[in-house]
Every structure is written in structure tokens, then in C-alpha cells.
């Protein structure tokens, strides 16, 4: 089975979330559980300064009927279709508060026969843990941290 694009992955995952009784949006890529919003942002790449501004803001616009309002987001997962800039990982290492709220997933390897994905996730988000489980079950994805990669090479 081929791996769909990031938009389709998130859409399928949100369907899984609904089956667990978690609230999702038809129009935005967030999951609401335990009074917390878990937001998914998917991109090919981003400039580090833009990443920092967006990640630090921890906000998301959500549709309410025909209008939108801004909410606070507890956790944000960044899904990259290409390897993310190295500076992003450094930001998470240098800023513990940011690391507790932000996960980065390099999903560029999903189209390979043995899909290996890099992750930087020290959040306590059960939604992001479930997202990783979803990708393992559906696509055989393996998740490694950059530390795991260095250890494997030694």
C-alpha cells in the first residue's frame, strides 16, 4: 500500500481520533482531548525564524460557524515532507519549554520500502504518541531520534 501525502495522513489519523471519542475539526488539523488542543502543521520546509515565531505563539485559528477565533494550543506537531532545517532541532535542545510543547517529525522517509522517520518529541502529548502508533500500524513506520541514529552508527 502506498503512503498518502501529509494532508491525507492527518485526515486519516483524525478519523482514528474520532473513534476514540476525541474531538477533531473538519476544517483544521487539531485534536481536542482532556481540555487541550493538539495541533498538526504540515509543511515541506520553513525558515527557522518563522518556525520560532509560530512555535512560541502557541496559537491556532479555529472555525466556529462562519467566523474564526484564536485559541491557545497546548501541543504542536510539525510534519515535514522534507528533512527540516537543522536549526529547528537546536531550538528544541536550547529551549526546554518549547521542547515540551513542540514535536518535529521528519516524514520524508515514508515513501521508502522501510519507512524510517526521525522525530524530536519530548512532549507529553498522548495524541502525538497515538499518531506515531497510527503510522506504525498503517505504514510500518519506524521512529528514531537523532540520538538513536548516532548510537546505531557507533
State the end-to-end distance.
33 Å
Compute the average pLDDT.
88
Indicate the structural class: alpha/beta
Order of strands across the biggest sheet? 1-2-3-6-7-8-9
Main sheet makeup: 7 strands, mixed
Number of strands: 9
Write the H/E string, N to C.
Answer: HEEEHEEEHHEEHEH
| Amount of helix | 25-40%
Number of domains: 1
Topology:
Blueprint (H helix, E strand, L loop, with lengths): L5 H14 L3 E2 L5 E4 L2 E8 L4 H10 L1 E6 L2 E6 L2 E6 L5 H9 L1 H6 E5 L9 E6 L4 H14 L2 E3 L1 H8 L1
Describe the structure concisely.
Helix content is 40%, strand content 30%.
Overview of this protein structure:
This protein has 154 residues and is α/β, with parallel strands linked by helices. It has one domain. Helix content is 40%, strand content 30%. It is built from six helices and nine strands. The strands form two sheets. A seven-stranded mixed sheet has the order 1-2-3-6-7-8-9. The C terminus is likely disordered.
Essential attributes:
6 helices; alpha/beta; disordered C terminus; 154 residues; two-stranded antiparallel sheet
Amino acid at each position: 500500500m502506498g503512503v498518502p501525502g501529509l494532508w491525507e495522513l492527518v485526515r486519516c489519523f483524525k478519523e482514528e481520533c474520532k473513534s476514540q471519542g476525541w474531538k477533531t475539526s473538519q476544517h483544521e488539523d487539531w485534536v481536542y482531548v482532556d481540555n487541550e488542543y493538539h495541533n498538526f502543521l504540515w509543511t515541506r520546509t520553513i525558515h527557522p525564524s518563522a518556525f520560532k515565531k509560530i512555535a512560541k505563539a502557541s496559537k491556532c485559528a479555529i472555525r466556529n460557524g462562519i467566523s474564526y477565533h484564536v485559541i491557545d494550543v497546548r501541543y504542536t506537531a510539525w510534519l515535514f515532507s522534507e528533512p527540516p532545517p537543522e536549526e529547528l532541532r537546536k531550538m528544541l535542545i536550547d529551549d526546554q519549554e518549547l521542547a515540551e510543547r513542540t514535536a518535529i517529525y521528519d516524514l520524508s522517509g515514508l515513501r521508502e520500502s522501510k519507512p524510517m522517520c526521525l522525530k524530536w518529541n519530548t512532549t507529553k502529548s498522548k495524541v502525538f504518541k497515538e499518531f506515531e502508533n497510527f503510522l506504525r500500524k498503517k505504514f510500518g513506520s519506524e521512529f528514531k531520534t537523532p540520538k538513536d541514529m548516532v548510537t546505531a552508527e557507533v
